[in-house]
Amino acid sequence: MTELRIATRKSPLALWQANFVKQQLEQHHPGLQVTLIPMSTQGDKILDTPLAKIGGKGLFVKELEQAILENRADIAVHSMKDVPVEFPDGLGLAVICERDNPYDAFVSNRFAGIHELPDGAVVGTSSLRRQCQLRAQRPDLVIRDLRGNVNTRLAKLDAGDYDAIILAAAGLRRLEKADRIRSLLPPEYSLPANGQGAVGIECRLNDTATLTLLASLEHAETRYCVLAERAMNRTLQGGCQVPIGAFAEMEDNDHLWLRGLVGSVDGKQIIRGDISGPKEQAEELGQLLAEQLLVQGADEILRAVYGA
């Protein structure tokens, strides 16, 4: 195989991720020519409506998956937190690359952290997960939706539309904008989304030549953690736009620790749990934690969210 085609969104962050995979592949396989096929997705086109109301983050991957199925591309590179838990027939997650910083980042031109924000300050985020955790700790804040790519969101902050915004730290780091991060929000304050900070590569499951090329990019520890997080989300039947947090980290070489939460959007009710166990049981651990959360009342919260 001498050529590999990557389907990618056109946003700066998506292009960074695709170019990162291109460089890694060309480094591991001299002589391989990797080309990018930039595409616009529904999620990129509908920018005036919160994602939760238009079908969630699957809108960012559908067109890319179609291109692979129709053999117009060989792989697609995704932020793992944007990847729906179910794949179309014939496609799957071939590789999960090493995770970058998984935390949420507080970004502001005037304040160093959430604790400094005055009563009634306006904070921008479209993530129901972030909204629910913020409201639980600071019910006085005014939280407004914020869509668009990273540069668009930063421009809205700089224009004075918001006192602060919350973004994924990994995205800012990748776009060389880490200097905009005033503080990182630890998981105790803002539990990340499943897969946050990790990049995944999707391809045709019967494409053995491509699967062989991609194998060198796999990061085993990241896969265990992300599989546990995604299993929890899948068992809760959580789309990407629901107030669910899931974050796993390795405790040692053989065990992982998974934390999860489900919350009401107003932050008045948050159910938390955690579980530890052997990394080989990552998916079972995710499923068990989800079942614990459901028994504690997460099912009622999720019903209310989906019914909204």
TrEMBL record:
- The organism encoding this protein is Tolumonas osonensis
The Porphobilinogen deaminase N-terminal domain, residue ranges: 4-210
Spell out the HAMAP family in the cross-references: Porphobil_deam
Q: Anything else of interest in the record?
A: The porphobilinogen subunits are added to the dipyrromethane group.
Question: What InterPro entries does this protein's entry cite?
Answer: HemC, Porphobilin_deaminase_cofac_BS, Porphobilin_deaminase_N, Porphobilinogen_deaminase_C, Porphobilinogen_deaminase_C_sf
Q: Which NCBIfam families match?
A: hemC
Q: What is its EC number?
A: 2.5.1.61
Q: Which PANTHER family does the entry link to?
A: PORPHOBILINOGEN DEAMINASE (PTHR11557:SF0)
Tell me the Gene3D superfamilies matching this sequence. Periplasmic binding protein-like II, Porphobilinogen deaminase, C-terminal domain
Do you know which PROSITE patterns this protein is assigned to?
PORPHOBILINOGEN_DEAM (PS00533)
- This chain belongs to which protein, by name? Porphobilinogen deaminase
Q: Which GO terms describe its molecular function?
A: hydroxymethylbilane synthase activity
Gene this chain is encoded by:
hemC
